Amino acid sequence: MDILVYALYIVAFAMFILGLSGLTAPRSAVRGNKIAAAGMAVAFVATLIHIRETSSWLIIIAALVVGVIIGIPPARKVKMTAVPQLVALFNGVGGGTVALIAWGEFIESDGFTGLRVASGPVLPLVVASLFAAIIGSLSFWGSIVAFMKLQQILPGHPLSVGRLQQPLNAILFLGSIVAAVIVGIGSTTTGAAPVWFGAILILAGILGVTTVLPIGGADMPVVISLLNALTGLSAAAAGLALNNIAMIVAGMIVGASGTILTNLMAKAMNRSIVSIVAGGFGGGGKGAAVASSGDQIAKSTSAADAAIKLAYANQVIVVPGYGLAVAQAQHAVKDMAKVLEARGIEVKYAIHPVAGRMPGHMNVLLAEADVSYDAMKEMDDINGEFSRTDVTIVIGANDVTNPAARTDPNSPIFGMPVLNVTESRSVIVLKRSMSSGFAGIENPLFFGPNTTMLFGDAKKSVAQVTEELKAL
């Protein structure tokens, strides 16, 4: 029977890796997700076979049914603008689950004093359980705060206690470590042990809150990725404590992939992970609405004028951002692209690594409108195209098109790789107002000599431009 279980686990792991490899390209992402989901189903069946106790089966299946009932409706009905929040929430649930598993193992083994293994020392299993408890609780509460910031239940700008923020975080971290050491060495009485373990969960949970609160909205994509990596590592640690191979492998895959993604996104922002976690950056998109900056004046345009520029272009690049998601304008953009392509005009889409509110947000959004995967270009591939582009249309992509990142050493985002939209012959920016982006920084692009602003709801504005194109 054990041989069958291990064989099924190996099949599941292979499907996890195959599914993950499919996520490296938009064209194969859906297939990869389905393969990974099927692998999880195989691992679930293997776990049921391993347990063998029918009573435990019933409890697990009942929990599975409850999870399906709770999980499927929001996953099916959530709008694309709310997908980052959903990802943060689902990731938080994973971290919370790991913390509860550690708590359950603590209770089951009578405060770890009754923990026994067939061979080898007990201490590594105790350390793994305590690590899972700390990181799981931190990830759960940190993800909840990230969800609330993205959902605008909490302000998107940094919330901190100033200079005391980092000392406070250090005290909470050391406090959770001390409580874990006390539990681990078994120096507490039977009655006090649960209190100390509860202190671990509480202190780590507060640390998760105080770590994410000072981080601004502009850094939320990186935060979500980092918390996802932490959840994976905590799951792997819980797997070590339970001697569950499936949890170990799945957790390490999630932890490793999340860590790699976090590092790549931090590089795309020219920021270190430490500086991001330190917080204090990102204004939450509540910048003042202004029409000029010093002697510079933003020039507004109309749908008719924008259509004329587009009609005489040879190449057009669309730069999508969170504003596109908010307006749900992806289908309108696709309709406009069809009209342009019918005129022999080439249309491409420039995707910045941190555009939107989560990794791959814009890719998923455009794919929903059946935009060709080949037309979606990553930043490194498309930046050389702007100098040969007649018209670039920027839809809600504020910070990732800010030329101050290249030209202003005093800018908070100086050095951050951005899309070189200013090299285009003409730039049309679609925005509701002149407000700053999620980082709370003014964008000099809006006042550029080759830039015009088309104000209004992006979906309606694009639809109007499309109608004007058809009339030409």
Verbal overview:
The protein is of the alpha/beta class and 472 residues long. It has three domains: 1-77; 81-278, no CATH class; 292-471, Rossmann fold (3-Layer(aba) Sandwich), CATH 3.40.50. The protein has helices at 2-22, 26-51, 54-77, 83-108, 123-150, 165-185, 193-212, 220-242, 245-268, 273-278, 303-311, 322-327, 330-342, 361-368, 379-382, 404-407, 458-471, and strands at 292-293, 296-297, 315-320, 346-351, 376-378, 391-395, 426-431, 451-455. The strands form two sheets. A six-stranded parallel β-sheet has the order 5-4-3-6-7-8. A two-stranded antiparallel sheet has the order 1-2. Helix 16 (404-407) links the parallel strand 6 and strand 7 (426-431). It is globular and about 80 Å long.
Question: What is the element layout, followed by pairings?
Answer:
Elements: H1 2-22, H2 26-51, H3 54-77, H4 83-108, H5 123-150, H6 165-185, H7 193-212, H8 220-242, H9 245-268, H10 273-278, E1 292-293, E2 296-297, H11 303-311, E3 315-320, H12 322-327, H13 330-342, E4 346-351, H14 361-368, E5 376-378, H15 379-382, E6 391-395, H16 404-407, E7 426-431, E8 451-455, H17 458-471
Parallel strand pairs: 3-4, 3-6, 4-5, 6-7, 7-8
Antiparallel strand pairs: 1-2
